[in-house]
Structure formats: C-alpha cells, structure tokens
Amino acid sequence: MIPPRKIGLYGGSFDPIHHGHLILAREAMESLGLDRVIFIPAGISPHKLGRPPAPAALRCAMVAAAIAGEPGFEFDDCEAVRDGASFAIDTVRLMRGCHPGAEIFYFIGGDNVPALDTWKEISELERLVRFVVFSRGAVGASHAFLSVTRVVDISSTDIRNRIATGRSVRYLVPPSACEIITRHRLYRNE
After folding, report:
1. What is the CATH number of the domain that holds 175?
2. Hey, which of 38, 75, 115, 184 has its CA 20 to 30 A from 69?
3. CA atoms of 39 and 109, how far apart (whole Å)
4. Pairwise CA distance, residues 53 & 51, whole Å
5. Domain total for the chain?
6. Which domain holds residue 130?
7. What is the pLDDT along the chain (190 residues), one digit of tens a residue?
8. Across 34-172, where does the E strand assignment appear?
9. What DSSP assignment string belongs to 144-176?
C-alpha cells in the first residue's frame, strides 16, 4: 500500500518572491519529508489590505519563474484567479479535492500566529491541515504548531524599498524574478 502523500501549501503575497521564501520551503520539504511544496500566490490577501500588491499575474509569473526546474516545487494560481479575498480555508478545500488522501501542511509566517484565531473558519482549517510556522530566527508568539526555523534576514518589504531607492536586490531575488521586476518596472514608486 502506498502511504498518503505529504504536501506543503505555501500561500502568500510573494510581492516579490525572494530567496528567503525558497530557502524556508526547501528546509520544510526536507525536515518534514514532504513530497512536494505548492506555491500559491494570493490574489487579494485579507490580512494585507493596506498597500496594493503588484498585479497578481506578475507575482504569479515571478513565482513560476523562480521555482522552474526545482524538484518538488510546484506553482498553482488558484488564489490569484479567484474573485475576492484569498482565504486559506477555500484553498485548502480545493487542494484536498485535488489531492485526496494527502496529508496537508499549511505554511504560515511566525508573524501570523497571534492573529490566527481571526482567520476564516479557523477551527475547520485546523482540522484539515497541520500548520507549520516559519520562523526566520526572530522570537515570536508561542504556539503548539510544527516549526521550521532558519535565520533568513530577507523580506519582501526590504526588497521593495531597495528597488524604490535604486539599490541592488541581486542575491536577494532569483534572477528570473528580478527580470520580471525590471521589465515591468515594479516597486519603483513605493
């Protein structure tokens, strides 16, 4: 009998995707024995309504380009093409339908833990997935979830600020994603 597959769902704005995202995804895949990690860029994040992100199609293109050819990494645009806000519960239900019998791990940043109780249908979501908290080395809220900790001092906010002020993002952003940023002149007016 084939054991159920183990799949990690990595949602987020990915505005832009950077090496920190990729390092944490690979660390989770290896430490948790996942068969694959699916990157799912949000269309409209209900938790980040203060600043409009780059267009979803461009963020999807950056993610797809950044993970192209990377074993075990996949891309899904289900949230980016969905109307309205991107709620984790809707995505998890969709993924459970696409991957029946799979054990689903849902990645969240450590900064999301304190507000997790505000997520749509959180009790049902906790029943359907195993949360994995990504910690980039900072001390965060205590929790009982699985954790993947790796000191990675790279953030999308810093990358957007660097681009807006004309500084280099080389070594922070995969070259394929950086080409999209340059071609479409993203983040210049932050």
Report:
1. 3.40.50.620
2. 184
3. 14
4. 6
5. 1
6. 6-183
7. 466 699 999 999 999 999 999 999 999 999 999 999 999 999 877 655 567 789 999 999 999 999 999 999 999 999 999 988 889 999 999 999 999 999 999 999 888 899 999 999 999 999 999 999 998 665 556 788 888 988 888 999 999 999 999 999 999 999 999 999 999 999 998 6
8. 36-41, 73-75, 103-109, 130-135, 146-149
9. SSEEEE------HHHHHHHHHTT---TTTS-HH
